[in-house]
């Protein structure tokens, strides 16, 4: 009887040992990256440059040896093909055998839809571009991370920069795209603004169709109302068209424009954007950031990207590089923590949850709810001889800690509790001049 | 104030209606002759816009004359739209002429998707426009609001000329009268010795040029991005459904109605702006199920 017990005990012990050996995965030859971006449709304005940047970066990264010899092998999904097809392709890629990691998506709608899928399949997903703060606030995920800023950070910083640049205004109008981002960003902006400056009167809330080709009725109405400030969180072709039509009719001279996503349009618009417009960078990646003028990595990337595509990197490009650097950085750190053993998905997720990394701008930190704390850069346009389009000066950097609610709180409620003292927070600092 | 508001909304509405009419005109013409909604018409709009922008970008360093530049919009539209339209008919739709209308619709949809890809290959995903031109034509102040002459006078003017020109062509030229005959009854027209195939190609070329003209006239004000063609085809479908399929005067009236409704909505109920074209369409179709200007069709056995 005794010998039988000993036999069972030995058996169990050796089995357990074998099981841990199996659980600790072998080093794979490659990491399959399931990546999604808009290759078609209006959002390809952001998606196409980001894809070029990713391919460029991965090529260099693999040439330099990858993650200790393990190469990245990207597969792309087009987000422009509609939600059903997107999700089924996403599932297929996420369930492929081998080491895999997902970097998806641009659309906030898709991010909301894919986060529970990634969680179910126990595959790590980096939300590389979408801004909706709701996805990580409404549910706690183990495998879902966002390596860029969320809408709350972007909008609170926009209000702060507006109040610092133009403290005395009385009326404001908004022209946002009629879809989730346009509506959600306005809700946060409005509540933040009314908390910090309750006497502002909102004179018009216009939500033209996403992809609208004509804003002349909106411009006419704004000219008749003459608001002190006009806000638009539009981007891409919509922002180009709106700004061009507004500028041709002099609206940008009579109202102070606030354009948190203008970074992606400035280069194309040239003289259509006059000096004095408040512009944001959806994070702090800006090719003309004076603090990074001599940063070898940022400079080399900007030059190479400009040479490859003919344009300067926009915010989506910066977000893509951040996501790739966070993912590969997490692998490297988990490998080091694990004494050279290839990490399990759980170990990688644990590493990500407190990862510190850098894209091509200032350092970023991920926190335990999976949200990155990335500061925001805002500036005011000026004409500059160095470029044929407006550049941003009077730049200010707003660190993310003061722009975002603590873990577990919801942005919509949190912004209502903000106090005007926030404007004097010493962590806000000027960048350059 | 109320009157001023109405006036301002009218100006915006008419300018938008002008573009909408030009695009719908081509769509409704094809609908009349072939009895099919040509989804690829959205691509013709996009191609017109993109190619006009390319032509303008090439011309701008060489000339400052507004006449030449405006003229180039028409040239780009006529050449690109006309050729592409004729090609679509010759190369594609002719082979599906006697098939199920649903199949024809799907064929035009397939053509649309392919053309959209070609357009992305040629012009990429970055927004394209030709902003300088509209500024060159100057501005006019009306009730304290600045309008561009380009949208205040030029676009509605072109739309009216196109309407009058097309009406004249259809009533007084041989080719035009042949088109009318084919619209009325294809077999009878063929029996009377009209070369229906030639009329078909002609209609497609004409419609293509009109659609492309809509795009070319938009590009000084609108940034063209992939997917814009799809947007336009949906709105102009609302126009021709409101008007009655194949109705030219109807398309003019429906464009004005929809344009006005949309700009009035921006002033009074901005939330409704997006759905306004479709609300108008539903309202009209509830009362007149075949559209505003539909004619009684002879029953065919």
UniProtKB/TrEMBL annotation, chain B:
Keywords: Amino-acid transport, Cell membrane, Membrane, Transmembrane, Transmembrane helix, Transport
CDD domains, sorted: TM_PBP1_LivH_like (cd06582)
A molecular function (GO) term: transmembrane transporter activity
Name listed for the protein in its UniProt record: High-affinity branched-chain amino acid transport system permease protein LivH
Organism: Variovorax paradoxus
Gene Ontology annotations of biological process type: amino acid transport
Record's keyword annotation contains Ribosomal protein: no
Record keyword Transcription regulation present: no
């Amino acid at each position: 009887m005794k010998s039988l017990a000993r036999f069972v005990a030995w058996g169990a012990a050796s089995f357990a040992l074998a099981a841990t050996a199996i659980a600790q995965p072998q080093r794979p030859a490659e990491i399959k990256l399931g990546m999604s971006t808009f290759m078609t449709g209006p959002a390809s304005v952001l998606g196409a440059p980001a894809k070029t940047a990713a391919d460029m970066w991965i090529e260099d990264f693999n040439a330099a040896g990858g993650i200790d010899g393990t190469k990245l092998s990207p597969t792309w999904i087009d987000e422009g093909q509609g939600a059903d097809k997107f999700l089924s392709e996403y599932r297929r890629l996420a369930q492929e055998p081998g080491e895999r990691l997902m970097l998806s998506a641009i659309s906030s709608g898709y991010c909301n839809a894919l986060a529970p899928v990634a969680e179910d399949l126990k595959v790590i997903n980096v939300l590389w571009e979408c801004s909706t703060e709701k996805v990580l606030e409404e549910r706690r995920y183990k495998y879902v991370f966002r390596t860029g800023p969320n809408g709350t950070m972007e909008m609170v910083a926009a209000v702060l920069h507006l109040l610092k640049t133009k403290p005395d205004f009385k009326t404001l109008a908004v022209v946002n795209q009629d879809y989730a981002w346009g509506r959600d960003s306005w809700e946060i902006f409005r509540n933040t603004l009314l908390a910090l400056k309750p006497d502002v009167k909102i004179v018009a809330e216009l939500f033209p169709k996403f992809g609208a080709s004509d804003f002349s009725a909106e411009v006419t109405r704004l000219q008749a109302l003459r608001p002190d400030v006009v806000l638009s969180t539009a981007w891409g072709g919509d922002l180009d068209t709106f700004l061009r039509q507004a500028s041709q009719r002099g609206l940008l001279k009579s109202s102070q424009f606030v354009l948190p996503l203008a970074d992606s349009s400035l280069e194309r618009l040239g003289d259509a954007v006059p000096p004095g417009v408040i512009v944001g960078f959806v994070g702090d990646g800006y090719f003309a950031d004076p603090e990074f003028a001599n940063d070898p990595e940022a400079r080399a990337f900007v030059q190479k990207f400009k040479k490859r595509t003919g344009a300067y990197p926009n915010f989506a490009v910066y977000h893509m590089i951040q996501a790739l650097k966070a993912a590969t950085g997490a692998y490297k750190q988990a490998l080091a923590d694990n004494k050279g053993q290839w990490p399990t998905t759980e170990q990688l997720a644990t590493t990500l949850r407190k990862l510190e990394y850098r894209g091509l701008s200032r350092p970023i930190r991920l926190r335990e709810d999976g949200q990155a704390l990335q500061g925001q850069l805002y500036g005011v346009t000026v004409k500059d001889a160095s470029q044929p389009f407006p550049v941003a000066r009077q730049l200010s950097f707003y660190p993310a800690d003061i722009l975002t609610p603590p873990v577990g709180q919801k942005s919509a409620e949190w912004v209502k509790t903000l106090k005007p003292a926030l404007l004097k927070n010493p962590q806000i600092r000027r960048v350059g001049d | 104030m109320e009157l001023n508001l109405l006036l301002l909304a009218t100006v915006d509405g008419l300018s938008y209606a002008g573009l909408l009419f030009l695009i719908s005109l081509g769509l409704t013409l094809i609908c009349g002759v072939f009895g099919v909604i040509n989804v690829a018409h959205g691509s013709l709009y996009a191609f017109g816009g993109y190619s006009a922008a390319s032509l303008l970008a090439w011309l701008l360093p060489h000339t400052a004359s507004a006449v030449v530049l405006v003229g180039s919009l028409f040239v780009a539209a006529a050449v690109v739209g006309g050729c592409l339209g004729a090609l679509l008919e010759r190369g594609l739709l002719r082979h599906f002429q006697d098939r199920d209308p649903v199949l024809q619709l799907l064929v035009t949809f397939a053509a649309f998707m392919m053309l959209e890809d070609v357009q992305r290959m040629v012009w990429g995903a970055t927004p394209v426009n030709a902003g300088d031109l509209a500024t060159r034509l100057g501005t006019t102040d009306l009730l304290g609001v600045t309008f561009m002459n380009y949208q205040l006078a030029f676009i509605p003017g072109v739309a009216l000329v196109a309407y009058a020109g097309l009406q004249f062509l259809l009533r007084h030229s041989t080719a035009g009268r042949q088109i009318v005959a084919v619209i009325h009854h294809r077999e009878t027209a063929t029996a009377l010795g009209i070369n229906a195939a030639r009329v078909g190609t002609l209609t497609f070329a004409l419609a293509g040029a009109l659609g492309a003209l809509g795009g070319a006239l938009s590009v000084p004000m609108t940034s063209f991005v992939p997917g814009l063609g799809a947007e336009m085809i949906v709105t102009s479908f609302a126009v021709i459904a409101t008007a009655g399929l194949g109705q030219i005067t109807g398309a003019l009236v429906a464009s004005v109605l929809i344009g006005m409704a949309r700009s009035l909505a921006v002033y009074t109920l901005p939330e409704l702006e997006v759905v306004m074209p479709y609300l108008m369409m539903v309202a009209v179709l509830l009362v007149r199920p075949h559209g505003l200007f539909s004619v009684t069709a002879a029953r065919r056995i």
